[in-house]
Design a protein that fits this description.
Number of helices of chain B: 11
Distance between the termini of chain C: 67 Å
CATH class of one domain in chain C: Alpha Beta
CATH architecture of chain B: Up-down Bundle
Shape of chain B: globular
CATH superfamily of chain B: Ferritin, core subunit, four-helix bundle
Chains: A mainly alpha (333), B mainly alpha (256), C alpha+beta (95)
Strand order of the largest sheet of chain C: 2-1-3
Order of helices and strands of chain B: HHHHHHHHHHH
Number of helices of chain C: 2
CATH superfamily of one domain in chain C: Phenylacetic acid degradation B
Structural class of chain C: alpha+beta
CATH architecture of one domain in chain C: Roll
Shape of chain C: elongated
Radius of gyration of chain B: 18 Å
Radius of gyration of chain C: 21 Å
Helix content of chain B: 55-70%
CATH topology of one domain in chain C: Ubiquitin-like (UB roll)
Order of helices and strands of chain C: EEHEH
Helix content of chain C: 10-25%
Oligomer: heterotrimer
Strand content of chain B: under 5%
Largest sheet of chain C: 3 strands, antiparallel
CATH topology of chain B: Ferritin
Distance between the termini of chain B: 14 Å
């Protein structure tokens, strides 16, 4: 999930677009038409999408790591199966998203190179460590919960391949949040030690989860253009508030407390009001100074480098096979 | 909770061997998730691991029922120590590189595919039902791993070298697939287990076909490793279980 | 050095419902067997399909969106191809 990307300035040479084409494009967007790969689109629209879908894909594959950290230690066979299936799903979602980005004329290899070179961003949440089993509960409940808030509107995003990938992803993710909440519920109904484990995890994951929605609207001037192009359909603050409103009652049901002394229910608006978010932490983690940034990228690089000979071998075998078949055909003629 | 000790009958021991092998191999495969050579392979290896985990769970449930003392699948998986595990040694070896994983999966699947085909006729009706499901799953594992074996054997010099190394390391562990001790004999006698001797020709034929496509030769090891079926393991299993069993051991009696 | 790209394949799946193969996404693979397996492992994890086709993406020829007019608009006026064009008295019943 991972709309943090939506708020960044997109670099690249300025392209002066034909005003008539731009107007026709905007009219299609306004009429809720989907934009498809071969359709004309403004260069800035294409770049915004490549950047956003790429970052979304990177978030999925980097996101495999913190949870993957517990696959070998899942405390029951049922949990092990669910966690493995879930982390596998994240890989699948990365795959769908890379494919959606590829329809815009950029290859998975190029996107991946950008990630490994540290040039592309991914969701800051995955730079936090998973220290106890309760963190797996919290990631499912909070991180996937926040992801769903972001991803459901993306099912109606204006770019067809992205919207279709999101529909598939949302369908598959429906079990992820429930899986996490069930872990939390089991811990909270368990021993005192288990409940303390759950509380500790909530204390660590709550604020980073709120940061997943990106900077406040007042600081994200690019939201406006993305909203006009219907790449994005709700602002960061709107989605964050929806998430808080949905999540706080779930946490109270668990019998847990939130690490925010200012959290209170506002009777007049019907919303949960929360205290100020530490945006300096957000910026630090996004800039590479989170607890696990280096480890996450190092793990991705290691897998990629150690897999290079495998990919090479597959391509070499395919080429040899084609050559052999060609030779056989020629010999037969 | 402290380590449990089961009162093993030959039947129970036999089912535990199958269950432990499936769980331990699934665990090794799951270590790839997030670290595979390409995303498509992350998904493929996780699918195989999930199939094996599913088989292990059915087999543990069956074992618990055979013991009849109300234990759960998790008691059997998490509360037995290494000497009580009865898996094949080949399943517990560390995941290694991708060639090692491919060769191991090919060898194990080349044995278990005909094994489960025959086990569908087991007089143990639960085992026969598990075999019905497992046979189809393992047929795909063999197809997937076998295709990679050919790709790696025929691919580049490096992939060929790594594949040969893996084959060389793993071959001495294939003897155990065909071992028949007193437990095995009793099971074959009772019509519960297929006789591994009848599986050997199919196993060898499958391998020879794949190895020929990969332009590799079947190693001719003069000696074979043994011990897993009796609970005498490599040094690796203890480490694996220390990781896997950590939580239930650290918080005795807790539910997860 | 940039890595040699792994070819892209488009995946089509026929679901249980008996409908025609439908495009579901794509995978990267070096050869057809690898593509077929990747498609199976990626797109049928929840019992979605009974049959898979994989096609090299490069083998697909697509119509040009700029030609939407000449390609698709002429059919709009041929309303006599639709059953609702014909009037049948209600007494005749369903036809």
């Amino acid at each position: 999930m991972y709309s943090q990307a939506l708020n960044e300035r997109i670099e690249g040479p300025r392209v002066v677009e034909d005003p008539a084409k731009l107007a026709a494009f905007q009219a299609r967007i306004d009429a809720e038409e989907r934009i498809e790969p071969n359709d004309w689109m403004p260069e800035a629209y294409r770049r915004t999408l490549v950047r956003q879908i790429g970052q979304h894909a990177h978030s999925e594959v980097v996101g495999m790591l913190p949870e993957g950290n517990w696959i070998t230690r899942a405390p029951s066979l049922r949990r092990k199966a669910a966690l493995l299936a879930k982390v596998q799903d994240e890989g699948g979602h990365g795959l769908y998203l890379y494919a959606a980005a590829e329809t815009l004329g950029v290859s998975r290899e190029e996107l991946y190179e950008q990630l490994l070179a540290g040039k592309a961003k991914y969701s800051s949440i995955f730079n936090y460590p998973t220290l106890t089993w309760a963190d797996i509960g919290c990631i499912g409940w909070l991180v996937d919960g926040a992801a769903i808030m972001n991803q459901i509107p993306l099912c109606r995003t204006s770019y067809g391949p992205y919207a279709r990938a999101m529909i598939r992803i949302c369908k598959e993710e429906s079990f992820h949040q429930r899986q996490g909440y069930e872990i939390m519920l089991t811990l909270c109904r368990g021993t005192a030690e288990q409940k303390a484990m759950a509380q500790d995890a909530l204390n660590r994951w709550w604020w980073p989860s709120l940061m997943m929605f990106g900077p406040p609207d007042s600081e994200s001037q690019h939201t406006e253009q993305s909203m006009r192009w219907k790449i994005k359909r709700f602002t960061n603050d709107e989605l964050r508030q929806k998430f808080v409103d949905a999540t706080v009652p779930q946490g109270l049901y668990l019998g847990l407390t939130f690490p925010d002394p200012e959290l209170r229910f506002d009777e007049t608006t019907g919303h949960w009001r929360f205290g100020p978010i530490d945006w300096s932490e957000f910026k630090r983690v996004l800039a590479g100074q989170g607890p696990c940034n280096r480890e996450r990228l190092a793990a991705r690089r290691k897998a990629h480098e150690e897999g290079a000979w495998v990919r090479e071998a597959a391509l070499a075998h395919a080429a040899k096979k084609r050559a052999r078949e060609r030779a056989q055909r020629i010999a037969a003629e | 909770m402290t380590t449990i000790h089961l009162e093993e009958t030959p039947h129970l021991t036999y089912v535990l061997r199958l269950a432990d092998s499936a769980l331990v191999l699934s665990h090794r495969l799951s270590e790839w998730c997030g670290h595979a050579p390409m995303l498509e392979e992350d998904l493929a290896l996780a699918n195989i691991a999930l199939d094996l985990l599913g088989q292990a769970r059915l087999l543990y449930e069956h074992a618990a029922a055979l013991e009849g003392r109300g234990r759960s699948e998790d008691d059997l998986a998490y509360l037995r120590d290494a000497p009580q595990f009865k898996n094949l040694l080949i399943c517990e070896l560390p995941r290694g590189d991708f060639a090692f994983t491919v060769v191991r999966q090919t060898l194990v699947s080349a044995f278990f595919h005909p094994y489960w085909q025959l086990a569908r006729g087991s007089t143990d009706r639960t085992l026969a039902a598990i075999a019905e499901k497992a046979e189809k799953e393992v047929a795909y594992h063999l197809r997937h791993a076998g295709a990679w074996l050919v790709r790696l054997g025929d691919g580049t010099e490096e992939s060929r070298r790594r594949t040969l190394e893996a084959l060389d390391t793993l071959w001495p562990y294939t003897g155990e697939l065909f071992e028949v001790d007193a437990v095995g004999e009793a099971m074959i006698e009772a019509g519960i287990a297929p006789d591994p001797a009848s599986i050997r020709p199919v196993f060898e034929d499958t391998l020879d076909r794949l190895l020929a496509d990969a332009e590799l030769a079947r190693p001719s090891a003069a000696w074979m490793q043994t011990g897993g079926l009796r609970g005498v393991h490599t040094e690796h299993l203890g480490h694996m279980l220390a990781v896997m069993q950590h939580l239930p051991r650290a918080y005795p009696g807790a539910r997860w | 050095m940039a890595e040699q790209p792994m070819p892209l394949w488009e995946v089509f799946i026929r679901s249980r419902t008996g409908l025609a193969h439908r495009h579901v996404g794509s995978v990267h693979a070096a050869d057809a067997e690898m593509a077929l397996q990747a498609a199976r492992d990626t797109y049928t994890r929840r019992g979605e399909g009974l049959s898979i086709w994989v096609v090299p993406s490069a083998a697909i020829t697509a119509s040009d969106p700029a030609e939407k007019g000449p390609l698709f608009e002429p059919t709009a006026s041929k309303i006599y191809r639709h059953p609702s064009f014909y009037e049948i008295p209600e007494e005749v019943g369903h036809m």
